[in-house]
Amino acid sequence: MTQPSFIRRVRGGxxxxxxxxxxxxxxxxxxxxxxPLRKGKVPxxxxxxCANNVCGGRPNMKTAGPCRCPAPCHAWAAxxxxxxxxxxxxxxxxxxxxxxxxxxxxxxGLTVVDxxxxxxxxxxxxxxxxxxxxxxxxxxxxxxxxxxxxxxAVRPGVDIKSSMxxxxxxxxxxxxxxxxxxxxxxxxxxxxxxARSALHxxxxxxxxxxxxxxxxxxAYLERGIAMAVERITAARSAIHAxxxxxxxxxxxxxxxxxxxxxxxxxxxxxxxxxxxxxxRHCTDAWTNAATRLGL
Length: 295
Prior knowledge:
By secondary structure, the protein is an alpha+beta fold. It contains ten helices and twelve strands.
C-alpha cells in the first residue's frame, strides 16, 4: 500500500505511523470501527461537502457503516475498519489534530456501559455481571459482547453506548468480556412511569378493623423497603422468583397494617423493572403474593 505523505519519516528511511493512527489501524484490523476525536473528545465537524447539511442529510446515521464522505464526518457513522479510508490523505488533518481515538461499539458487536462516577460504579458492581472494565477519567467503561440501542442517562451517571454511538478507546481493559445481559438491555427500555403504573396496577391492602401498626417509628418501614429494593437489585439470576419472594416478604411484614403507600410500591416496582421485569410481571407477582397471604 502506498504510504500517505503525513506518515513521519525517520532515520534509515523507515516510516513511523503517528501513535493514534497506529492504534486505530490495530483496532480496525481486529474488526473495531474507528474514527479520530478532536479537542473535547468529540468527532470532527462535517467535511465541506456536508457542511451545514448541504448534502441533504446525515448519511448512514440510521444504520451502521462508514460515512461515504472523503473526510471523517457525520459523527459515529465515519467510523470504519477500512485501512485505506483510515490512512487516506483526506483524514490526515484529523489525525494530526486528534487527541484520542473513538470507536463505534455497535459496529464491533459490543456495548459499553459508561459509568461516570463512583456511585455509578458501586451500583454496577451490585447490579451487573462482571465483564471487561476500562478505567476512564472519572469512572469506568464496562464492555459486554453484544450490540443494542444506545441511550444516555439511563440512570444517574450511567450511559449506554452501542449502536449509533461512539466511545473513546482507552486501552484493552482488564477482565474477561461477558455476554450482554438482559439487565443492561432493560436499562434502555422506555417503561411507563413506575409511580403511575404502581398506582393503577395494584391494590393497596387496607388496614383491618382494630389492627395495630407494629411500626414503632417510620424508620422501621423505610428500612424494610430499602432492604427489599437492595435484595432485588443484587439479584443476578432467578429474577422472577426473587421479585416474588421479596414482594411476599414485604406484604407479610407490612401488608396488614395499611402503612404501605404508592411511593413504597413505586420503589419496589422500579427496582424490579430495572432488572428487566415488565409491569405485568410486577403486577402479577404483587397480586400473587397478596393472594397467598389472604390480603
